[in-house]
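Take our chain:
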Amino acid sequence: MKIRTYVLSVAAGIFFLSAGTEKASLTEGYRPGDLAPGIKSLGTDADITFSNSSGCYTLLHFWAAYDAESRLKNVQLWNELNRGGWPQVKMVSVSMDKLTSIFTETVKTDKLEGTNQVHEELGERSEVYEKYGLKKGLRNFLIDNNGVIIATDVTPGRLSEMMSKRKN
C-alpha cells in the first residue's frame, strides 16, 4: 500500500511540474523561442519593445557599415518588405557603427532615409550587443507580437516565404 501511495504521489508531482513547464521555459534571450530583450532608446524618444496587440511582427536587423554582408542584407530586407506589401511586419534596423557620421552617410548612400534606422554608438560595448549575442556576427531576428523570437538570420527570400504562409 505504501508503494502505491508513493508511486501516485510521484506521478502527481511530475504532472503538476510539467503543466507549468511551457510558460516557465520562456526566458529572455536571442534564440528562437526566447523572449526578445527590449532595447533602451537608441536615438529615439522611446524604448523599443516587441509585444503588441496589433498582431504585427518585428524584423530586428543589426548591421554596420564595416560589415558588408550585414549592410547589403539591410538594404535587401527593406526592399523586400516594400515589394512584398506586408503591413504586418515592421522593420527596425540598428547600426552598430561607432561614429554617427558613418551611420548617417551610409543611410544616405544606401537610400534608406525615412526608414526605421537607429544608431547604437557604443557598438560592441553596448548592452544590446551583449543581449543579442552579436559576438557571433551581426544578424537579424523575426519577432512575433508576443515578443517571442520565431526566426533568426532571415534572408529576403525566407522572409517572403514566411509571410506568404502566414497570410493564408
